């Protein structure tokens, strides 16, 4: 569904992305001894299977109407904001990381994220384009519109069950049944805000859509937003004193953090980007992103909110 006026074809954008991905993996393998098997598995699943499944799941779902009034200006401001707000990631998140008590740490961190990636950028774009909320954030909760969210959420949970660490962590934690029954929906609601609303509003609804219109290519917007989505996680990987990603180690170098953000994290943005590109439904990407992160984050959430000792 690419605009015919685009000077660069979809295949070119996609090809450039995978070339960048391959270069990142080679550099990590060469200079950091990075194990390539996990990255290659992620490439197959998140880079090919899930985007293809997203295309199939959305084939009979009409995209919601979405208006972008000044795409070039709005996209430029958002990218500039993302770069300029790096100090928040480097200093603000670093200070939050030093908060030792939970759930205070999680609540403060969520507050910083909401302010940095929802409230401020939404206010800026709204002022630039004079958008109403319904125009800025197209959302449909009808069954037809949410079917892709159901299918993709089930696929994501199945993938995490078979290949992720989530079920292993849950078994090793020996959580009582009542804790799982209570924690699963509450954790999902938390993730709906923390990763769903926070990340999808900025990177899909605001950034990807405006880049797509400015570049006159849905795929161009998707690819560029995916790279930026990956890179914005690099400061967190670098500053985290004991990263949860096993491949990163407890104290990754900045080079490792940046490379990992491209090789691993940006891949997750591809199928989410396809879902947004095809549906323009904020609810779909929010639900799928939260479901994708549910299993690996369930035990940490339970511990953070002291539901078990």
Query: Which class do the helix and strand fractions yield?
Result: mainly alpha
Helix content: over 70%
How much β-strand is present in the residues? under 5%
- The rounded distance between the terminal residues' Cα atoms is 52 Å
Task: Report the radius of gyration as a whole number of Å.
Answer: 19 Å
Low-confidence stretches: none
Order of helices and strands: HHHHHHHHHHHHH
General form: globular
Largest sheet: none
Mean pLDDT: 91
Work out the count of structural domains: 1
The number of helical elements comes to 13
Total beta-strand segments: 0
Structure description:
It is a single chain. With 309 residues, this protein is an all-alpha fold. It has one domain. The protein is 77% helix and 0% strand. The chain is built from 13 helices and no strands. Helix 2 packs antiparallel against helix 7 and helix 9 packs across helix 10. The longest helix is centred in the middle third of the chain and has 39 residues.
Layout of secondary structure:
Layout: H1 10-32, H2 36-57, H3 71-84, H4 86-97, H5 104-129, H6 133-136, H7 143-163, H8 166-173, H9 177-215, H10 218-231, H11 234-239, H12 254-279, H13 282-304
Helix pairs in contact: 1-10, 1-12, 2-7, 2-12, 3-5, 3-9, 4-5, 5-9, 7-13, 8-13, 9-10, 9-12, 9-13, 10-12, 12-13
In short:
The chain is mainly α. The protein has 13 helices and no strands.
């Amino acid at each position: 569904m690419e605009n015919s006026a685009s000077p660069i074809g979809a295949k070119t954008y996609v090809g450039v992305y995978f070339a960048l991905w391959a270069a990142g993996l080679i550099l990590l393998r060469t200079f950091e001894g990075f194990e390539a098997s996990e990255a290659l598995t992620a490439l197959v699943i998140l880079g090919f299977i899930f985007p293809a499944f997203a295309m199939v799941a959305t084939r009979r779902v009409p995209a919601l109407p979405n208006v972008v009034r000044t795409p070039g200006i709005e996209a430029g401001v958002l990218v500039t904001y993302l770069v300029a707000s790096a100090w928040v990631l480097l200093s603000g998140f670093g200070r939050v990381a030093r908060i030792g008590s939970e759930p205070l740490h999680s609540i403060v961190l969520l507050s910083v994220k909401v302010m940095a990636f929802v409230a401020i950028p939404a206010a800026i774009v709204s002022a630039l384009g004079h958008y109403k909320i319904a125009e800025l954030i197209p959302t449909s909760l009808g069954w037809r519109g949410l079917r892709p969210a159901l299918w993709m959420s089930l696929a994501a949970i199945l993938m995490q069950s078979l290949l992720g660490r989530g079920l292993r962590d849950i078994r090793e934690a020996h959580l009582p049944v009542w804790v799982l029954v209570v924690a699963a929906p509450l954790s999902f609601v938390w993730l709906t805000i923390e990763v769903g609303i926070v990340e999808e509003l900025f990177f899909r609804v605001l950034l990807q859509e405006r880049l797509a219109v400015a570049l006159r290519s849905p795929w161009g917007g998707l690819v560029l937003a995916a790279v930026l989505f990956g890179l914005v996680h690099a400061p967190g990987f670098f500053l985290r004193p004991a990263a949860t990603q096993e491949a990163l180690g407890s104290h990754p170098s900045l080079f490792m953090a940046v490379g990992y953000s491209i090789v691993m994290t940006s891949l997750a943005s591809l199928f989410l980007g396809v879902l947004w590109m095809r549906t323009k439904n904020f609810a779909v990407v929010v639900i799928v992103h939260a479901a994708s992160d549910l299993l690996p984050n369930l035990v940490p959430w339970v511990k953070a909110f002291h539901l078990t000792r």
